[in-house]
Design brief:
2 domains, seven-stranded mixed beta sheet, 11 helices, binds adenosine-5'-[phenylalaninyl-phosphate]
Length: 341
């Protein structure tokens, strides 16, 4: 019996040494260490032995089982280490290897300018307000002192919708909406998309952005001089000190007196070129003291309040700021252009 047990031990050790996988080790565990193992079978014969022999064989079989179990455990560890080494080899990460650069998005130049404009006006105490892009005729035109058949409506070529509304032709409509709910004093700006039925060229688009501003207070508290200094501060904040600004008399039905703001053409430095149509200046926007008819439309008492309003094209401001010579680049979606900002 002793020989049988030693044979089982030697066979087991030899087979365990040759095992290569966990499954093989498991099969050997069942074969040599499980309840139905060869060793258990041999021990069934114990009952026929003397008590002396039983003790001796019992000890030998216990030691044999321990040896087999420890060989199985050693083998298991060996296979595990080997697998880990292989994984290391396959999945090794070289942290010094230069990474692949992923493309990073950034803000559109018009959004950047829009944020700059908002920051400058907020720093001067203005509130930023927003309203709808599709307006009714009253808020886009009538409330701005442009009643039906008024020739001033022709100044803004309009897309008319079937229901009589319009994609707003200017952000001035936001003024009327705000004043219906708020009484002066206030200082607001509103920025957003506007639409005109115009052909595109280097300085015109049919879909562009404006910023509209309105300062309103008790009569006598707002003057052209205050407003001019606010606009000068705005221009300096956006373009730096060197850009020249000029103010010239102009007509807008919603202001009286009205002005137009121009900036010196940054491409020809005022000499005259294709972009500025040879005049040396680029028109940025209009401004003026609010016409009392506009206040009447929102039911303010006549002459109780005075206001100064201004409206600029954001694309034109961005063109001057970044030296862009064609407005169409903003909406062309050309990455070679957009990646420069
Ligand atoms: C207006 O829209 C007035 N609501 C501005 C205003 C507000 C005047 C308050 C007085 C008081 P105008 O149509 O000129 O005005 O447009 C204002 C600015 O928008 C222009 O100076 C120009 O910078 C820009 N703009 C006008 N039309 C276009 C266009 N087709 N493409 C790009 N920018 C344009």
């Amino acid at each position: 019996m002793k020989n049988k047990i030693n044979d089982i031990k030697n066979k087991a050790i030899e087979e365990i040494k040759k095992a290569k996988t966990f499954t093989e080790v498991e099969t050997l565990r069942v074969k040599y260490s499980g309840r139905k193992s060869e060793l258990t079978n041999v021990l069934r014969g114990l009952k026929d032995l003397s008590s002396e022999e039983k003790k001796e064989i019992g000890e030998l079989s216990n030691m044999t089982k321990q040896t087999i179990d420890s060989e199985l455990a050693k083998k298991e560890l060996e296979i595990k280490n080997e697998e880990l080494n292989n994984i290391d080899e396959k999945e090794r990460i070289d942290i010094t290897y230069p990474g692949e650069k992923s493309e990073k998005g950034h803000l559109h130049p018009l959004t950047k300018v829009r944020y700059d404009i908002e920051e400058i006006f907020k720093s001067m105490g203005f509130l930023v307000v927003e309203d709808r892009e599709v307006e009714d005729e009253f808020h886009n035109f009538d409330a701005m002192n442009m009643p039906k058949n008024h020739p001033a409506r022709d100044m803004q070529d309009t897309f008319w919708l079937k229901n009589g509304c319009v994609p707003r032709t200017h952000t001035s409509s936001v003024q009327a909406r705000f004043m219906e709910k708020n009484k002066p004093p206030f200082k607001i700006i509103s920025l957003g998309r506007v639409y005109r039925n115009e052909n595109s060229d280097a300085t015109h688009e049919s879909n562009f952005h404006q910023v509209e501003g309105l300062i309103a207070a008790k009569s006598g508290d707002v003057t052209v001089a205050n407003a001019k200094s606010i606009i000068s501060e705005f221009m300096k904040g956006l373009f730096g000190e060197e850009t020249k600004i000029r103010l010239r008399p102009s007509y807008f039905p919603f202001v009286e007196p009205g002005f137009e703001f121009d900036a010196s053409c940054p491409y020809c430095k005022g000499e005259g070129c294709r972009i500025c149509k040879k005049c040396g200046w680029i028109e940025l926007g209009g401004a003026g003291m609010v016409n009392q008819n506009v206040f009447e439309k929102v039911r303010f008492t006549e002459d109780e309040f005075e206001g100064f309003a201004f409206g600029f094209g954001i694309e034109r401001l961005a063109m001057i700021k970044y030296g862009i010579d064609d407005i169409r680049l903003f909406h062309a979606g050309d990455l070679r252009f957009l990646e420069q900002f």
